[in-house]
């Protein structure tokens, strides 16, 4: 992993086809450092692998008291509105905003209604595909597993999700100098000598550029208070802010162990055996096969 180009508030990384999570952790760290020094830090990355969940990197920024933003491109799953050629990946958008009395706001959204991982998990568990998850090769809604390989994901918000995917492709792919759009066709990615060349974009902003940090945090808290104190729909006990449920789940996992679907647990066991890993998972609750299990 090396910096190819750098200014006082920006950097461009060559990820050397390394693990996307590690490349991105390093890159976001540089964006955070530059934001602390200059007020804003921007980092683009080329020649990387997919960075996984966007929420991790924006959370790192909020932990430093900064506003964080990130995106990446990836394997193609979405077509433009009116077309049936896969042109964009899920191209997630992550935005993190620190708070004081409340947990930070952590928005982590993909540009399709259901990610390939979620679709694959449903198939693995023997469940039928939900309506509105995939399209067939003609762009028509489908629940047929035969359409899964050649099918397309359904963008969130229709043409709005497609538009967001395109904008994220510019930031992650075009701006970074990495591959974009057709460069990430699945037949190319499956070639042994073809590196993915995914691109990422990270930004960190110091609120102190606009007002004292304490004032900004207080204003965010008051906004969250207004959101959570609004009238609730019938049967709803609490209004959540983006990321709040995930952080609560994280805290519970740290206390009680990770709640894991049986299909995921068995996949991990199989992977560990095939890879020759000696690390064992300690099962805390051996639930029925159709229920989650808890592991240490």
Quick rundown:
The chain is of the alpha+beta class. The chain contains eight helices and 13 strands.
What distinguishing features does this structure have?
296 residues; alpha+beta; three-stranded antiparallel β-sheet; 21% strand
How is the topology of this model organized?
Layout: E1 2-6, E2 10-18, H1 20-38, E3 40-48, H2 55-63, E4 67-72, E5 93-97, E6 105-109, H3 116-124, E7 134-135, E8 141-142, E9 152-153, H4 159-174, H5 186-189, E10 198-205, H6 213-228, H7 244-256, E11 258-260, H8 262-275, E12 283-285, E13 293-295
Parallel strand pairs: 2-3
Antiparallel strand pairs: 1-2, 3-10, 4-5, 4-10, 5-6, 7-8, 7-9, 11-13, 12-13
Helix pairs in contact: 1-2
Describe the structure.
This protein has 296 residues and is α+β, with helices and mostly antiparallel strands. The protein contains 8 helices and 13 strands.
């Amino acid at each position: 992993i090396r910096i190819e180009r750098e200014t006082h508030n920006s950097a461009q990384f060559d990820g050397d086809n390394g693990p996307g999570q590690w490349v991105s952790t390093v890159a976001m760290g540089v964006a955070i450092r530059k934001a602390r020094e200059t007020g804003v830090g921007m980092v683009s990355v080329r020649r990387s692998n997919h960075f996984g969940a966007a929420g991790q990197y924006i959370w790192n920024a909020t932990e430093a008291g900064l506003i964080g933003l990130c995106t990446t491109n990836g394997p193609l799953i979405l077509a433009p509105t009116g077309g049936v050629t896969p042109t964009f990946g899920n191209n997630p958008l992550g935005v993190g905003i620190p708070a004081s009395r409340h947990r930070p706001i952590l928005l982590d959204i993909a540009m399709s209604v259901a990610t390939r991982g979620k679709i694959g998990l449903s198939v693995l568990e023997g469940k039928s595909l939900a309506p509105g998850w995939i399209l067939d090769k003609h762009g028509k809604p489908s629940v047929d597993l035969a359409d899964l390989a050649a099918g397309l994901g359904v963008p969130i918000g229709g043409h709005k999700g497609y538009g967001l995917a395109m904008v994220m492709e510019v930031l992650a792919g075009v701006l970074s100098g990495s591959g974009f759009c057709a460069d990430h066709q699945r037949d190319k990615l499956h070639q042994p000598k073809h590196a993915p060349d995914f691109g990422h974009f990270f930004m960190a902003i110091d609120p102190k550029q606009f007002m004292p940090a304490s004032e900004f945090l207080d204003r965010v808290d008051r906004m969250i208070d207004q959101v959570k104190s609004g009238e609730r729909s019938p049967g709803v006990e609490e209004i959540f802010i983006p990321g709040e449920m995930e952080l609560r789940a994280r805290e519970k996992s740290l206390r009680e162990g990770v709640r894991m679907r049986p299909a995921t647990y068995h996949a991990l066991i199989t992977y560990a055996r095939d890879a020759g890993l000696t690390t064992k998972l300690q099962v805390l609750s051996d639930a029925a096969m159709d229920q989650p299990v808890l592991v240490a």
